[in-house]
Structures are given as structure tokens and as C-alpha cells.
Design a protein that fits this description.
Blueprint (H helix, E strand, L loop, with lengths): L3 H6 L25 H28 L2 E5 L4 E6 L5 E3 H7 L5 E9 L3 E2 L3 E7 L6 H5 L3 H4 L16 E3 L5 E3 L5 H4 L5 E6 L4 E2 L2 E2 L6 H7 L7 H4 L31 H7 L7 E8 L9 E2 L2 E9 L9 E7 L9 H28 L3 H5 L5 H25 L3 H11 L10 E3 L6 E3 L30 H8 L4 H12 L10 H5 L11
Antiparallel strand pairs: 1-15, 2-3, 4-14, 5-13, 6-12, 6-15, 7-8, 9-10, 9-14, 11-12, 16-17
Helix pairs in contact: 2-10
């Protein structure tokens, strides 16, 4: 038996275990895509998606919305020197600590039946930036307070006070620092009172019960200003977010929880309030009429060229207003139907049988060409045999009956119906014997020499030629390149030595 020390010292192997999964021996199934399976799939998807898309559009259109943009609303309490109203955006840009109030009157054209929700919307605000998303301390949000916070919160992790003392920020990070701080209220002219709004029930229960917890004890003592600093852009401490409701205060404040769930796109909306339908006059929802939006303006958007808006909205069976999903379903269904119809026409016009498709091999096209060639060759051999038997009339008659497409041609020509072969008969013609005799070459009289060559030929042979001409002739005679016949420089420089056996 091997001791434990010896077994631990054995080298570990990287060989996978002998299992069907790791050795890739699992059974596989690959469907054969034929017209009988693909075309019904297209039609089923088209028939199913179009009604679903119409239903989604119907429920989306049932949702009623009213949007009010208050980015550049005029201030009620601050004016220019000449008495003209000043926009709250300019007031906040000059001094962020100033309080600016503005009001916007609007008309609700129809009754908003059922539950009504108030949202705030921002544009050009990139909550999906990587550093912004990571800029938080999850332990701190769980109520685990410490003098040392996560490095991800930098540069919103610590604050240097007047006494040069470094204090951690609670809650730290860029997300908490940029908390939406505008206060929105609605006034109903019809009921002569403010619309009752609920601050709770706007966050996900999983976030409120799991991800965000308050430390034990009194919040004011836990987040004491002597120990923790508030975020730089906040006007109040965390224990002052909702002092009238202890369950909605501190880190469990639902406005904070909603804001900490970052948006995926730069244009987004977040739930701000719920209309309290238990109050008389608002039990059926918001009735049509004149309303006034009152804003305590403190969240600046001019730095990133953004905009702010307030949205009143109802809901449907499928949630809020979202026409994109219904349009997407209808478009995909229509595309599938069009493709199904087009492919069906192509299949009916140009398709082959299922047996031919199943028996297709890499050599199928070659085999078809071979069979066609053998058929034509056998026909040609048959015709050639008939011709040799001096039965050309019968041959033409036989092929003409089978392939009757030679009526406009001479009777000695046979044309097949596929127009790939034409057979012509050329009967043997008599050839006179005198035409088969060789033609005598006429010999001209030359100079009286043995070699029968002229003086010019002799001079060309015995004249001194240039090295380049000699090399060219040698390369032609030996079928080699001209470089074979150039003298090598190493032979010129080589030392000349006598051979040890000159007789060889």
C-alpha cells in the first residue's frame, strides 16, 4: 500500500477521465433540414408572432402618459435685476446651495383610471459607465460601517474637514453622490389640494430587504457627523432623508435604493412616487383637468447638457408603455411569412424529390454527368453500328422517330432532343490513285562542291564567334540555361596543381 506522503508526491495528470462527456462520446442528433420541416416553421412563427405583437401593441396603447419637461422652468423666487424671471438652471449653475422653486401649469386631457405613478426622467446621463457602476461600497450599504471604505468609491470616499481630519463619506461613491434631489409635488385645481403621493413601495422588495440595511441603533448616532461626512452634493445627512418614517430613512430610503439601481441607457426614467388612491377625490385615479407641477429645483443637468422631465403614467397587464416589443414581434412575424411564401414558390418550381435530396453525396453531380455521357455514347455506338451495316436510312428513321427534331436539316444529320449531340454521316468518297503519288521535290542547281553548300554557309561555320553566341548555341544544344556555360570565378582563382595520376 502506498503511503500518503508517496501518493501526494506523484505528479498530477491532465488526462481527462474516461467518461462519455469528457471523451466526446455522447450521442448526437442532427436534423435534416428539408422543405417539409423548414417551410412550416416559417409559417408557424409568422402566424404566432403577428397576433402576439398586435396584443402587445394593444396593451401598450392602453397605457396613458403625460410628460412635462421642466429643465428650463422659470424661478418663482429669484429674478434678474430688470425684473425678468430667471431660470432655475441658471440659478443652480451660479450657486448650487441656493433654493430655487418653479411651477408649471398643465392640463390632463383625459382621466387616468386605475393606479397612477409619477416618474422622473433624465437624458444624457450615463449611469452605465464602468467606473460609475463600480463606485459603491456594498458592505457599507449593508449597514457594516467602518472608518475604511472601499477603494472603488474614490474620489468620493473621504472628506477633509476644517480641522484637517479625514472622515469617510457615508454613503460613499459616485452613484450616491449624484442622487436625484429635486422635490416634485402636484396640485389639483379641481380638488383644490395637493395630489397625495406615497414615498414607499417604489423600490424592489429584494433590494430593500437584502441589499440595503441600516446599522443597529439610532441612525443619528450611527452616522454621527463627527465620524462620517455626507456626500459632497447632498444638502442633508443620510439620517435626514425621511425623518417622519423610520422604515424609509437612512440606507433603506427608497429614493436612494431606486437611484442606486443604475440604468442601462443614457435616457431613462425612475419611479419617484405613487398616487395615494385612498384619499377622497383620487380613488378612481387622476381626473382630467388643470394641474400644477411644483418643483424644488436642486439637481443640475446643465453640466452634461441633459434634460429633466416629470412623467405621469398608468400601467397595463404587461406593465408600462413599451410599443417596441409589439412592433418587433409584428416585423419578425411578417418577415417569416414573406420568407415562407417565397421559399414555397421556389420549392414548387425548382425542387427535387426527398429521395434525391437524401441520396445526395459529394460525387452525385459527377455520377449524373457520367450517366449522361454513357447514354450518349451508347446511342452513338448504336448509330455507328447501323451505319457500318449500310442501314443509314433505317438509323435516321429510327432516331427521327425517337427524337423528332431534325426536319429542317438534311436527311444525313441526326439531332438529339437535348441538343447536346449532332451526328453527321460522311460516306466514303473514291480517291484516284494518281492523287496518292508523292510529289517530287524540285532540286535547284548549286555550286559544284561535295558538301553541296555555298560559300556563305562555309564562312558562317568557320568564322570566329563571340563568347555570348557560343554560350547561347551550347545552351540550345544541351537544353540548359546559359549560366551553365559561363566560366566560374572560383575556377580562375583556384591554384593550379598537377594531378597525382596524370595517366588517368
Amino acid at each position: 500500500m502506498t503511503p500518503m506522503s508517496d501518493s501526494s508526491s506523484l505528479p498530477k495528470t491532465k488526462k481527462p477521465s474516461d467518461s462519455a462527456f469528457k471523451q466526446q462520446r455522447l450521442p448526437a442528433w442532427q436534423p435534416i433540414l428539408t422543405a417539409g420541416t423548414v417551410l412550416p416553421t416559417f409559417f408557424v412563427i409568422g402566424v404566432a408572432f403577428i397576433p402576439v405583437g398586435i396584443g402587445l401593441l394593444y396593451f401598450s396603447d392602453k397605457v396613458k402618459e403625460q410628460t412635462i419637461d421642466y429643465t428650463n422652468c422659470n424661478s418663482n423666487n429669484i429674478t434678474y435685476i430688470n425684473g425678468q424671471p430667471k431660470t432655475c438652471a441658471d440659478v443652480i449653475a451660479e450657486n448650487a446651495s441656493k433654493s430655487c422653486y418653479c411651477e408649471i401649469d398643465f392640463v390632463l386631457p383625459m382621466d387616468f383610471d386605475g393606479e397612477v405613478y409619477m416618474y422622473y426622467g433624465l437624458t444624457n446621463f450615463y449611469q452605465n459607465h464602468r467606473r460609475y457602476v463600480k463606485s459603491r461600497d456594498d458592505n457599507q450599504l449593508l449597514g457594516i460601517l467602518s472608518d475604511k471604505v472601499s477603494n472603488d468609491c474614490e474620489p468620493f470616499a473621504y472628506e477633509l474637514d476644517e480641522k484637517n481630519t479625514t472622515k469617510p463619506i457615508a454613503p460613499c461613491g459616485a452613484i450616491a453622490n449624484s442622487l436625484f434631489s429635486d422635490e416634485l409635488t402636484l396640485y389639483s385645481d379641481r380638488n383644490k389640494q395637493d395630489v397625495p403621493l406615497l414615498k414607499t413601495g417604489i423600490a424592489w422588495p429584494s433590494d430593500k430587504n437584502i441589499k440595503f440595511r441600516n446599522p443597529e441603533g439610532d441612525l443619528k448616532e450611527a452616522f454621527s457627523p463627527e465620524r462620517f461626512a455626507k456626500p459632497k452634493n447632498w444638502a442633508k445627512y443620510i439620517y435626514e432623508l425621511d425623518p417622519h418614517n423610520a422604515s424609509n430613512n437612512g440606507l433603506q430610503n427608497e429614493d436612494l435604493i431606486v437611484w442606486m439601481r443604475t440604468a442601462a441607457l443614457p435616457t431613462f426614467r425612475k419611479l419617484y412616487r405613487r398616487v395615494d388612491h385612498s384619499v377622497k377625490g383620487f380613488t378612481e385615479g387622476l381626473l382630467a383637468g388643470n394641474y400644477t407641477l411644483k418643483v424644488k429645483y436642486s439637481f443640475s443637468v446643465s453640466a452634461f447638457n441633459g434634460s429633466k422631465r416629470m412623467i405621469l403614467s398608468t400601467t397595463s397587464l404587461l406593465g408600462g408603455k413599451n410599443p417596441f416589443l409589439g412592433i418587433a414581434y409584428i416585423v419578425v412575424g411578417c418577415i417569416c411569412l414573406v420568407l415562407g411564401i417565397a421559399l414555397s414558390i421556389i420549392h414548387i418550381k425548382y425542387s427535387k424529390s426527398t429521395a434525391e435530396l437524401i441520396n445526395v453525396t459529394p460525387t452525385t453531380e459527377y455520377q449524373e454527368r457520367e450517366r449522361e455521357r454513357e447514354r450518349k455514347l451508347s446511342t452513338f455506338v448504336y448509330l455507328n453500328t447501323l451505319l457500318k451495316m449500310n442501314k443509314i436510312t433505317r438509323a435516321i428513321f429510327t432516331l427521327g422517330t425517337k427524337y423528332p427534331k431534325y426536319s429542317t436539316l438534311p436527311p444525313e444529320i441526326v439531332v438529339f432532343t437535348d441538343k447536346d449531340m449532332i451526328i453527321c454521316w460522311h460516306p466514303n468518297q473514291g480517291f484516284p490513285y494518281e492523287y496518292s503519288q508523292p510529289i517530287l521535290e524540285e532540286v535547284k542547281a548549286g555550286p559544284n562542291t561535295v558538301l553541296k553548300i555555298g560559300e556563305k554557309d562555309v564562312s558562317d561555320i568557320f568564322r570566329k564567334k563571340k563568347d555570348s553566341d557560343v554560350i547561347e548555341e551550347l545552351s540550345k544544344l544541351t537544353f540548359t540555361t546559359k549560366h551553365r556555360w559561363f566560366p566560374r570565378s572560383r575556377d580562375k582563382k583556384a591554384k593550379k596543381t598537377e594531378p597525382d595520376r596524370p595517366y588517368l
